[in-house]
From TrEMBL:
InterPro entries: RNA_pol_sigma-70-like, RNA_pol_sigma-70_dom, RNA_pol_sigma70_r2, RNA_pol_sigma70_r4, RNA_pol_sigma_r2, RNA_pol_sigma_r3/r4-like, WH-like_DNA-bd_sf. It comes from Xylanibacter rodentium. CDD domains: Sigma70_r4 (cd06171). Belongs to the sigma-70 factor family. ECF subfamily. This is Sigma-70 family RNA polymerase sigma factor. Residues 12-74, 112-159 form the RNA polymerase sigma-70 region domain. Keywords: DNA-binding, Sigma factor, Transcription, Transcription regulation. The keyword Endoplasmic reticulum does not apply.
C-alpha cells in the first residue's frame, strides 16, 4: 500500500472537487447539500486514508460522493413521505372542520409524547429540525442504522395509532 499524505490529498482535492460537486449536484440537485456531501466525502477519504490504497483513492472518493448523495436523497424522500402523511393526518376538509383538524393535531402530539424519549428525540431532530442521520448518530454515540431503527419504530407507532 502506497503512502497518501497531505500533499497528495491537497492535489486530489484541487483536481477532483469540481467533478465531485458536479456528481453530487446531478443526484441531489441542491448546491448547498452538494457541497456538504463533497466535504463529508473528502473528510471520509482523509479519515480512512491509511486503509485505502493510494491508487484507489479517487475511486473511493467518487463512491463516497455517490453513496452520500443517494443516502441524502433517500432521507429527503422519507422526510417528504412523513410530511405528506402529516398533511393527510391533519388535512383541512374546509373551514367547517376546523375542530376536527385541531383534534387530529392534538392526537399526533399526544402520540409523539408516548414515544420513548430517545426515539422521540431522534424523530424530532431528523424530521422537524432536518438534521442528517449521521449528525444525530454522532451526537447520540450510535450508528446511523440505530437512528434508522428509532425512525422506523416511531413511524410504525404513529401509523398504528393514527389510522
Amino acid at each position: 500500500m502506497s503512502i497518501f499524505g497531505v500533499e497528495e490529498f491537497e492535489t486530489m482535492f484541487r483536481e477532483e472537487y469540481r467533478r465531485c460537486l458536479s456528481t453530487a449536484l446531478q443526484i441531489v440537485g441542491d448546491a448547498e447539500a452538494g457541497r456538504d456531501i463533497v466535504s463529508d466525502s473528502f473528510a471520509a477519504v482523509w479519515k480512512n486514508r491509511d486503509n485505502i490504497d493510494a491508487e484507489k483513492m479517487r475511486g473511493y472518493l467518487y463512491a463516497c460522493v455517490r453513496n452520500k448523495a443517494l443516502t441524502h436523497m433517500k432521507h429527503i424522500r422519507m422526510s417528504d413521505s412523513l410530511d405528506s402523511g402529516a398533511h393527510i393526518a391533519v388535512a383541512d376538509d374546509g373551514d367547517a372542520d376546523l375542530m376536527l383538524r385541531e383534534s387530529r393535531i392534538e392526537a399526533v402530539e399526544r402520540e409523539l409524547d408516548t414515544l420513548p424519549e430517545r426515539t422521540r428525540y431522534v424523530l424530532e431532530q431528523c424530521y422537524y429540525r432536518r438534521r442528517s442521520y449521521r449528525d444525530v448518530a454522532d451526537e447520540l454515540g450510535i450508528s446511523t442504522n440505530g437512528v434508522k431503527k428509532h425512525i422506523v419504530k416511531a413511524m410504525a407507532h404513529l401509523r398504528s395509532a393514527l389510522t
